[in-house]
Structures are given as structure tokens and as C-alpha cells.
Amino acid sequence: MRLRPMLLGVATAALLVPAAQVTAAAPAVAHPFGPPATALVDVAGTEVTITWQAAEDDWVALGQSLGAFEDPSAGAVDTTLTGEQKLARSPAVNRYLTDRIAITQAGRTCPVTLLPLQDLLRQGARLRFDCPEPVTEIEVRLAALTDLHTAYRTVLTSDGPMTPSQALFTSAAATHRVSLTGSGRPIAGLPLAAGAAVAVAGSIAMLLTWRRLRRRRTA
Questions:
Q1: In the structure, what pLDDT confidence band is assigned to residue 60 with cuts at 50, 70 and 90?
Q2: DSSP string, 26-69
Q3: Which of left, alpha, beta for 124 (phi over 0: left; psi -120 to 50: alpha)?
């Protein structure tokens, strides 16, 4: 399903500027058959961060479904805040994200903290998970938007090593197990400082060998 540019422009403007028309625009512009939402996972020890990003019009549809925007027909509308700010301040939106994006490790849920939703359209929603053990293998659940339409999906990737290298989350497959061994961490059994020391020692050894060979040639 291809969106009409005019409708997409209305959705984006509704989030970026104060607009009472956001509730009227949302149902027309949501596009479950468009490009998927994306999620980026990052690991540091026992901490996992997921950055989830959706298209502007999908944020509009989500905000409307959760009551983040006022209904102009029901009363006054606050025009001092942008649609993006209303999404960020909505307790329902905050709960939705932490309910539908989750991580478990060895059957145990990793507690989640939703980081402040700032510059939502560019930065996405960032969630931090504190797992009980250093992360090597986890189960990730990404079920956002699929309650609005089963055609929605999210693609998970990582900046570091991940197996599989990407995972597709759908209404029928909302949870995937991924391995992130080595992602964001030094090699097992070799602390970062020790690794640096080995590298320096190797460089010194090569330099000394080169000097000895040079002396032999000039002798």
C-alpha cells in the first residue's frame, strides 16, 4: 500500500508542530505495509540497550490509539505542545513501549527502564535492560504496532557481532533468541588492558628485530 505524499506530510507536520488535526490524520496515514520499523541492540556487560524507531505516521497512529492526543470534538486541545511532545509525555505511550519491548535471559526477565523520549522522530525510543548475568544469549520480544495491524513488523540489527545478523519480528513471531557474544566487550579471558599490553609488546619486539637486521646489513 503506497501512501499519498500529502497524507504523509500531514502526519509529520502533526508531530513537529502544534496541531489539533493530529487525531483526524492518524487513521488515514498509518502504513503497516510500508517499510518496517527498526530496532538496534547494543550490549555492554549485563546491560542491553534497544533503540526502536518507527515512521512518523506510525507514531501518529500509535499515539491516537493510546489517547496521547486530545479529541477536538470532546473539548479543548492543548496547542502549546507538538504531537511529538505529547507522545513523549504520555504515560500510556511509555507503558506501551515497556510492555511490548522486552528481554529475557535464561528465562528471567531483565528489568527495563525507558530513557527520556527526546527528539523522538530522529532518535527513536531507547530502552535500557539490566540483565542478571553478562549477556551472551537473550530472547528479545518486539511486539510494538502489531496490535494496530498484524502486517506491522520490526527488523532487529546490532552494531556488534550478533547471530543471526538480523531478525524479523512479526505478529506471528514476536520473540527471537539472539547471540551477542563479544558484542561491546573484550575477548573472554583477556582484559582490555592486558590486550593493549600484548599489542605494545609485539610492536616493541618487531622494532627491536628490525633494528638488529639493519645493524647486520650496515656492519
A1: very high
A2: HHHH--TTSSPEEEEEEEETTEEEEEEE--HHHHHHHHHHTT-S
A3: left
Q: What interhelical angle do 5-16 and 56-65 show, nearest 10?
A: 70
pLDDT in tens, 66-118: 999 987 777 667 778 899 999 999 999 999 999 999 999 999 999 999 999 98
Residue type, 174: A
158 forms beta bridges with 41
Instruction: Check pLDDT > 70 for residue 33.
Output: yes
CB 178 within 8 A of CB 156: yes
Quick one: which H or E segment has residue 168? strand 167-169
pTM of the model: 0.71
Listing from the earlier edge strand, what are the strands of the sheet with 167-169? Answer: 112-114, 125-130, 47-53, 37-44, 154-158, 167-169
Cβ 12 vs Cβ 83: under 8 Å:
no
- Do 50 and 41 contact (CB within 8 A), yes or no? yes
